[in-house]
Structure to design on (346 residues):
Protein backbone atom coordinates (compact mmCIF):
# COMPACT_ATOMS: atom_id res chain seq x y z
CA UNK A 1 0.00 0.00 0.00
CA UNK A 2 2.25 2.70 1.27
CA UNK A 3 5.72 1.87 -0.04
CA UNK A 4 5.34 3.28 -3.54
CA UNK A 5 3.89 6.59 -2.38
CA UNK A 6 5.78 7.06 0.87
CA UNK A 7 8.82 8.57 -0.81
CA UNK A 8 6.64 10.95 -2.83
CA UNK A 9 4.66 12.03 0.23
CA UNK A 10 7.84 12.65 2.20
CA UNK A 11 9.33 14.63 -0.68
CA UNK A 12 6.18 16.74 -1.03
CA UNK A 13 6.05 17.50 2.70
CA UNK A 14 9.76 18.24 2.90
CA UNK A 15 9.30 20.85 0.16
CA UNK A 16 6.20 22.25 1.87
CA UNK A 17 8.01 22.49 5.19
CA UNK A 18 10.96 24.31 3.65
CA UNK A 19 8.69 26.88 2.05
CA UNK A 20 6.29 27.16 4.98
CA UNK A 21 8.26 30.10 6.35
CA UNK A 22 9.05 31.56 2.94
CA UNK A 23 5.72 31.69 1.14
CA UNK A 24 6.56 34.29 -1.49
CA UNK A 25 9.25 33.00 -3.86
CA UNK A 26 10.46 35.51 -6.37
CA UNK A 27 9.91 34.75 -10.05
CA UNK A 28 12.58 33.60 -12.42
CA UNK A 29 14.55 31.47 -10.01
CA UNK A 30 16.52 28.66 -11.57
CA UNK A 31 16.50 25.11 -10.24
CA UNK A 32 20.29 25.22 -10.25
CA UNK A 33 21.35 26.93 -7.06
CA UNK A 34 25.07 26.94 -7.70
CA UNK A 35 26.88 29.90 -9.13
CA UNK A 36 24.90 32.37 -7.04
CA UNK A 37 26.85 34.86 -5.02
CA UNK A 38 26.34 34.13 -1.32
CA UNK A 39 25.29 37.70 -0.68
CA UNK A 40 22.53 37.39 -3.25
CA UNK A 41 21.09 34.17 -1.85
CA UNK A 42 17.38 34.49 -1.17
CA UNK A 43 15.39 32.12 1.02
CA UNK A 44 14.18 30.51 -2.18
CA UNK A 45 17.71 29.87 -3.36
CA UNK A 46 18.75 28.56 0.05
CA UNK A 47 15.85 26.12 0.02
CA UNK A 48 16.66 24.92 -3.49
CA UNK A 49 20.25 24.45 -2.42
CA UNK A 50 19.16 22.40 0.61
CA UNK A 51 16.94 20.18 -1.57
CA UNK A 52 19.68 19.72 -4.14
CA UNK A 53 22.17 18.71 -1.50
CA UNK A 54 19.78 16.28 0.21
CA UNK A 55 19.08 14.80 -3.23
CA UNK A 56 22.79 14.53 -3.95
CA UNK A 57 23.43 12.49 -0.81
CA UNK A 58 20.42 10.25 -1.45
CA UNK A 59 21.67 9.71 -5.01
CA UNK A 60 25.11 8.83 -3.70
CA UNK A 61 23.62 6.39 -1.20
CA UNK A 62 21.53 4.75 -3.92
CA UNK A 63 24.58 4.56 -6.17
CA UNK A 64 26.54 2.81 -3.45
CA UNK A 65 23.95 0.04 -3.32
CA UNK A 66 24.29 -0.81 -6.98
CA UNK A 67 25.62 -4.25 -7.86
CA UNK A 68 29.34 -4.11 -8.41
CA UNK A 69 29.13 -4.87 -12.12
CA UNK A 70 27.04 -1.74 -12.66
CA UNK A 71 29.82 0.36 -11.22
CA UNK A 72 32.04 -0.82 -14.07
CA UNK A 73 30.14 0.81 -16.93
CA UNK A 74 32.68 1.73 -19.54
CA UNK A 75 30.65 4.18 -21.58
CA UNK A 76 29.19 7.41 -20.26
CA UNK A 77 26.13 6.83 -22.43
CA UNK A 78 25.56 3.45 -20.76
CA UNK A 79 25.49 5.15 -17.38
CA UNK A 80 22.92 7.68 -18.57
CA UNK A 81 20.80 4.92 -20.09
CA UNK A 82 20.95 3.08 -16.78
CA UNK A 83 19.70 6.16 -14.91
CA UNK A 84 16.84 6.63 -17.41
CA UNK A 85 15.71 3.03 -17.27
CA UNK A 86 16.63 1.18 -14.10
CA UNK A 87 17.08 4.00 -11.60
CA UNK A 88 13.95 5.87 -12.74
CA UNK A 89 11.92 2.67 -12.67
CA UNK A 90 13.09 1.87 -9.14
CA UNK A 91 12.28 5.34 -7.85
CA UNK A 92 9.26 6.39 -9.88
CA UNK A 93 7.82 3.11 -11.22
CA UNK A 94 8.26 4.38 -14.77
CA UNK A 95 11.08 4.97 -17.23
CA UNK A 96 12.28 8.32 -18.49
CA UNK A 97 10.52 9.09 -21.78
CA UNK A 98 13.52 10.11 -23.84
CA UNK A 99 17.26 10.60 -23.71
CA UNK A 100 19.13 12.80 -26.17
CA UNK A 101 22.77 13.80 -26.37
CA UNK A 102 25.00 16.03 -28.47
CA UNK A 103 27.79 13.44 -28.07
CA UNK A 104 29.87 16.16 -26.46
CA UNK A 105 29.00 15.54 -22.85
CA UNK A 106 25.52 17.06 -22.71
CA UNK A 107 22.46 14.89 -22.16
CA UNK A 108 18.81 15.86 -22.04
CA UNK A 109 16.53 13.50 -20.13
CA UNK A 110 12.85 14.10 -20.70
CA UNK A 111 10.00 12.89 -18.51
CA UNK A 112 6.59 13.74 -19.97
CA UNK A 113 4.80 13.15 -16.68
CA UNK A 114 7.21 13.56 -13.81
CA UNK A 115 5.66 12.06 -10.64
CA UNK A 116 6.98 14.73 -8.27
CA UNK A 117 5.26 17.43 -10.35
CA UNK A 118 1.88 15.69 -10.30
CA UNK A 119 0.78 17.10 -6.93
CA UNK A 120 0.97 20.57 -8.50
CA UNK A 121 -2.13 21.80 -10.24
CA UNK A 122 -1.51 22.18 -13.96
CA UNK A 123 -1.53 25.68 -15.37
CA UNK A 124 0.90 28.32 -16.51
CA UNK A 125 0.51 30.29 -13.30
CA UNK A 126 2.18 27.45 -11.39
CA UNK A 127 5.20 27.19 -13.64
CA UNK A 128 7.31 29.33 -11.35
CA UNK A 129 6.61 26.90 -8.51
CA UNK A 130 8.14 24.02 -10.45
CA UNK A 131 11.83 24.48 -9.51
CA UNK A 132 11.18 23.47 -5.92
CA UNK A 133 9.81 20.11 -7.05
CA UNK A 134 12.82 19.49 -9.28
CA UNK A 135 15.81 20.50 -7.15
CA UNK A 136 15.90 17.29 -5.11
CA UNK A 137 15.91 15.14 -8.25
CA UNK A 138 18.63 17.26 -9.89
CA UNK A 139 20.73 16.50 -6.84
CA UNK A 140 19.78 12.84 -6.89
CA UNK A 141 20.94 12.47 -10.50
CA UNK A 142 24.17 14.34 -9.74
CA UNK A 143 24.79 12.13 -6.69
CA UNK A 144 24.16 8.86 -8.51
CA UNK A 145 26.44 9.97 -11.37
CA UNK A 146 29.10 10.97 -8.85
CA UNK A 147 29.09 7.51 -7.27
CA UNK A 148 29.42 6.08 -10.78
CA UNK A 149 32.54 8.19 -11.31
CA UNK A 150 31.04 11.00 -13.37
CA UNK A 151 31.14 14.63 -12.26
CA UNK A 152 28.27 16.63 -13.69
CA UNK A 153 26.08 19.70 -13.46
CA UNK A 154 22.37 18.87 -13.53
CA UNK A 155 19.64 21.45 -14.16
CA UNK A 156 15.95 21.08 -14.85
CA UNK A 157 13.36 22.97 -16.82
CA UNK A 158 9.62 22.73 -17.35
CA UNK A 159 7.81 23.63 -20.54
CA UNK A 160 4.40 22.05 -19.96
CA UNK A 161 3.39 20.57 -16.60
CA UNK A 162 3.76 17.82 -15.55
CA UNK A 163 6.52 17.21 -18.09
CA UNK A 164 10.11 18.27 -17.49
CA UNK A 165 13.63 18.00 -18.82
CA UNK A 166 16.81 17.36 -16.89
CA UNK A 167 19.97 18.58 -18.54
CA UNK A 168 23.16 16.77 -17.53
CA UNK A 169 26.45 18.41 -18.51
CA UNK A 170 29.45 16.19 -17.86
CA UNK A 171 32.42 17.97 -16.28
CA UNK A 172 35.65 16.76 -17.80
CA UNK A 173 38.39 16.79 -15.21
CA UNK B 1 16.28 -1.97 -6.08
CA UNK B 2 15.72 1.49 -4.74
CA UNK B 3 12.09 1.70 -3.70
CA UNK B 4 12.40 -0.02 -0.35
CA UNK B 5 15.40 2.03 0.74
CA UNK B 6 14.58 5.34 -0.91
CA UNK B 7 12.30 6.47 1.90
CA UNK B 8 14.89 5.52 4.53
CA UNK B 9 17.68 7.34 2.69
CA UNK B 10 15.55 10.44 2.29
CA UNK B 11 14.59 10.36 5.97
CA UNK B 12 18.23 9.96 7.04
CA UNK B 13 19.38 12.84 4.86
CA UNK B 14 16.52 15.09 5.91
CA UNK B 15 17.57 14.58 9.53
CA UNK B 16 21.23 15.17 8.65
CA UNK B 17 20.37 18.37 6.78
CA UNK B 18 18.31 19.72 9.67
CA UNK B 19 21.14 19.14 12.11
CA UNK B 20 23.91 20.23 9.73
CA UNK B 21 23.75 23.76 11.10
CA UNK B 22 23.04 22.71 14.67
CA UNK B 23 25.72 20.12 15.43
CA UNK B 24 25.64 20.27 19.21
CA UNK B 25 22.30 19.09 20.56
CA UNK B 26 21.91 19.41 24.26
CA UNK B 27 21.43 16.24 26.28
CA UNK B 28 18.17 15.13 27.75
CA UNK B 29 15.90 16.34 24.97
CA UNK B 30 12.64 14.48 24.61
CA UNK B 31 11.29 13.26 21.27
CA UNK B 32 8.05 15.03 22.09
CA UNK B 33 8.51 18.65 21.11
CA UNK B 34 5.14 19.90 22.22
CA UNK B 35 4.53 21.51 25.55
CA UNK B 36 7.75 23.49 25.41
CA UNK B 37 7.50 27.20 26.00
CA UNK B 38 8.32 29.04 22.76
CA UNK B 39 10.95 31.13 24.48
CA UNK B 40 12.74 27.98 25.58
CA UNK B 41 12.83 26.40 22.14
CA UNK B 42 16.35 25.39 21.17
CA UNK B 43 17.44 24.57 17.64
CA UNK B 44 17.19 20.91 18.60
CA UNK B 45 13.58 21.31 19.70
CA UNK B 46 12.73 23.31 16.58
CA UNK B 47 14.17 20.55 14.41
CA UNK B 48 12.26 17.84 16.28
CA UNK B 49 9.12 19.88 15.87
CA UNK B 50 9.72 20.21 12.12
CA UNK B 51 10.27 16.47 11.78
CA UNK B 52 7.18 15.68 13.82
CA UNK B 53 5.04 17.97 11.72
CA UNK B 54 6.38 16.61 8.42
CA UNK B 55 5.67 13.11 9.77
CA UNK B 56 2.17 14.13 10.79
CA UNK B 57 1.29 15.31 7.30
CA UNK B 58 2.80 12.22 5.69
CA UNK B 59 0.79 10.07 8.12
CA UNK B 60 -2.37 11.97 7.23
CA UNK B 61 -1.69 11.54 3.52
CA UNK B 62 -1.10 7.82 3.99
CA UNK B 63 -4.29 7.55 6.03
CA UNK B 64 -6.27 9.22 3.28
CA UNK B 65 -5.23 6.52 0.84
CA UNK B 66 -6.60 3.72 2.96
CA UNK B 67 -9.49 1.72 1.54
CA UNK B 68 -12.77 3.12 2.74
CA UNK B 69 -13.61 0.07 4.83
CA UNK B 70 -10.50 0.60 6.91
CA UNK B 71 -11.71 4.05 7.87
CA UNK B 72 -14.69 2.42 9.53
CA UNK B 73 -12.85 0.60 12.31
CA UNK B 74 -15.17 0.54 15.25
CA UNK B 75 -12.68 -0.28 17.98
CA UNK B 76 -9.71 1.86 18.95
CA UNK B 77 -7.71 -1.32 19.53
CA UNK B 78 -8.40 -2.44 15.95
CA UNK B 79 -6.94 0.80 14.65
CA UNK B 80 -3.79 0.34 16.72
CA UNK B 81 -3.45 -3.26 15.55
CA UNK B 82 -3.79 -2.04 11.97
CA UNK B 83 -0.96 0.45 12.47
CA UNK B 84 1.26 -2.21 14.03
CA UNK B 85 0.68 -4.76 11.29
CA UNK B 86 -0.36 -3.31 7.95
CA UNK B 87 0.99 0.23 8.15
CA UNK B 88 4.34 -0.85 9.63
CA UNK B 89 4.70 -3.59 7.03
CA UNK B 90 3.98 -1.17 4.19
CA UNK B 91 6.49 1.39 5.45
CA UNK B 92 9.22 -0.71 7.04
CA UNK B 93 8.74 -4.18 5.53
CA UNK B 94 8.27 -5.62 9.02
CA UNK B 95 5.61 -5.66 11.70
CA UNK B 96 5.82 -3.99 15.08
CA UNK B 97 7.09 -6.53 17.62
CA UNK B 98 4.54 -5.96 20.34
CA UNK B 99 1.50 -3.91 21.29
CA UNK B 100 0.39 -3.44 24.88
CA UNK B 101 -2.38 -1.36 26.39
CA UNK B 102 -3.69 -0.43 29.80
CA UNK B 103 -7.22 -0.44 28.30
CA UNK B 104 -7.53 3.18 29.37
CA UNK B 105 -6.37 4.84 26.19
CA UNK B 106 -2.62 4.28 26.48
CA UNK B 107 -0.82 1.99 24.04
CA UNK B 108 2.83 1.00 23.91
CA UNK B 109 4.11 -0.13 20.53
CA UNK B 110 7.50 -1.82 20.64
CA UNK B 111 9.86 -2.33 17.72
CA UNK B 112 12.93 -4.34 18.68
CA UNK B 113 14.87 -3.29 15.61
CA UNK B 114 13.49 -0.04 14.27
CA UNK B 115 14.77 0.51 10.70
CA UNK B 116 15.26 4.27 11.03
CA UNK B 117 17.57 3.70 14.00
CA UNK B 118 19.74 1.18 12.17
CA UNK B 119 22.00 3.79 10.49
CA UNK B 120 23.08 4.86 13.98
CA UNK B 121 25.98 3.01 15.47
CA UNK B 122 24.90 1.02 18.50
CA UNK B 123 26.22 2.14 21.80
CA UNK B 124 25.08 3.99 24.89
CA UNK B 125 26.92 7.14 23.83
CA UNK B 126 24.56 7.50 20.87
CA UNK B 127 21.36 7.21 22.89
CA UNK B 128 20.92 10.96 23.06
CA UNK B 129 20.99 11.12 19.27
CA UNK B 130 17.99 8.81 19.04
CA UNK B 131 15.16 11.37 19.37
CA UNK B 132 15.94 12.89 16.00
CA UNK B 133 15.45 9.54 14.30
CA UNK B 134 12.11 9.02 16.05
CA UNK B 135 10.34 12.39 15.78
CA UNK B 136 9.21 11.91 12.18
CA UNK B 137 7.65 8.54 12.99
CA UNK B 138 5.92 9.90 16.10
CA UNK B 139 4.30 12.45 13.81
CA UNK B 140 3.49 9.83 11.21
CA UNK B 141 1.63 7.69 13.76
CA UNK B 142 -0.21 10.74 15.10
CA UNK B 143 -1.17 11.79 11.54
CA UNK B 144 -2.42 8.35 10.54
CA UNK B 145 -4.45 8.11 13.76
CA UNK B 146 -5.86 11.59 13.13
CA UNK B 147 -7.11 10.59 9.68
CA UNK B 148 -8.69 7.54 11.29
CA UNK B 149 -10.57 9.84 13.66
CA UNK B 150 -8.39 9.43 16.75
CA UNK B 151 -6.65 12.37 18.40
CA UNK B 152 -3.51 11.31 20.23
CA UNK B 153 -0.19 12.29 21.72
CA UNK B 154 2.67 10.09 20.51
CA UNK B 155 6.10 9.97 22.16
CA UNK B 156 9.03 7.64 21.70
CA UNK B 157 11.78 6.26 23.89
CA UNK B 158 14.83 4.08 23.41
CA UNK B 159 16.20 1.65 25.94
CA UNK B 160 18.59 -0.42 23.83
CA UNK B 161 19.45 0.50 20.25
CA UNK B 162 18.08 -0.23 17.69
CA UNK B 163 14.92 -1.07 19.65
CA UNK B 164 12.39 1.58 20.61
CA UNK B 165 8.94 2.11 22.05
CA UNK B 166 6.24 4.44 20.84
CA UNK B 167 3.68 5.48 23.44
CA UNK B 168 0.30 6.52 22.12
CA UNK B 169 -2.03 8.31 24.53
CA UNK B 170 -5.53 8.78 23.15
CA UNK B 171 -7.03 12.20 23.78
CA UNK B 172 -10.67 11.92 24.68
CA UNK B 173 -12.60 14.86 23.33
Amino acid sequence: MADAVLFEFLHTEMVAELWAHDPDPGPGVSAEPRGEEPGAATGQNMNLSVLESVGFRVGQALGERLPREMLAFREELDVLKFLCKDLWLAIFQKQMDSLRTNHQGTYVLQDNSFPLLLPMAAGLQYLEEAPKFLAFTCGLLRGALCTLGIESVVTASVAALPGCKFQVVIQNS
User: Anything to note?
Assistant: The helical segments of chain B are 3-19, 43-64, 76-92, 135-147. Confidence is low (pLDDT under 50) at residues 25-40 of chain B. The radius of gyration of chain B is 16 Å.
